[in-house]
Design goal:
Chain lengths: 147, 147
């Protein structure tokens, strides 16, 4: 060996689904974090803002369930977005006991900036995959794992 | 609507790489956690034991780098495995200042049990994907994201 890089036997990790998923997810989330560090946005904040923007008036429990986020974590995310003036809880028009989620005017403007940045982030990984067909193939395979 | 399940517009999340990666990774890790709860093994413990089993005598830094685990986290993982009597640090034969990693006899036996359980876990997800060709395709696409 004498100074050469050690060759490592990865055994079953070479084809282990969970291992590759985790490493790929960390690589994508690291780029996400760098892309959004200036805007102070984590992946979960992004998803929540996006869902509220496209589905104003949803109940908290509906958004949390749609994204697979646990209740306690979800409440903390909404508290954070509300404290920043981006989203707000309003009493539902259908049922006054229920809190419905909306973006503020500031949140709407923020969402536009966010989407521009997101498109740049996403393009880097579509390019790494080799284009949109490969991306579609990947997303379809990943969806099977969730079923 | 009246009681119907609310239809949600996922916007770009429908094809977002990071979002699908994260949800698939959580689904696979949840199954992993359930599979290994009895053995008290987390995914990172599994990977570290596997690498040490197949590469006895590697330096701590080499194993950590191979798996992309940060130094502080890695030391905690090895401390845990050592406290359970599964792995141990020994002075390297090449350089007595360096700590090399080995499994104990108990660790070797544990690794065999672990691999049987792991094969069951993995098979569930290979089946969900539709077989080994689909698995190979997924692993290849995921590897592109890490590059």
């Amino acid at each position: 060996m004498s100074g050469d890089r050690t060759i490592i036997n990865y055994s079953v990790l070479d084809e282990a689904i969970g291992y590759h998923l985790r490493r790929a997810q960390l690589a994508v989330f690291q780029d996400f974090t760098e892309t959004f560090s200036e805007l102070g946005l984590r992946p979960a904040d992004f998803s929540v803002l996006l869902i509220i923007a496209h589905n104003p008036g949803l109940k908290q429990s509906e958004v949390a369930e749609a994204l697979g986020i646990q209740r306690a974590n979800f409440v903390a995310i909404i508290d954070g977005l509300q404290a920043r003036g981006l989203a707000e809880r309003r009493k539902s028009e259908e049922d006054r006991r229920v809190q419905a989620l909306h973006l503020t005017a500031q949140g709407e403007a923020f969402a536009k900036t966010m989407m521009t940045r997101w498109a740049e982030h996403e393009k880097r990984f579509v390019d790494k995959l080799g284009g949109e067909d490969a991306r579609d193939q990947l997303v379809q395979l990943l969806a099977r794992l969730m079923g």
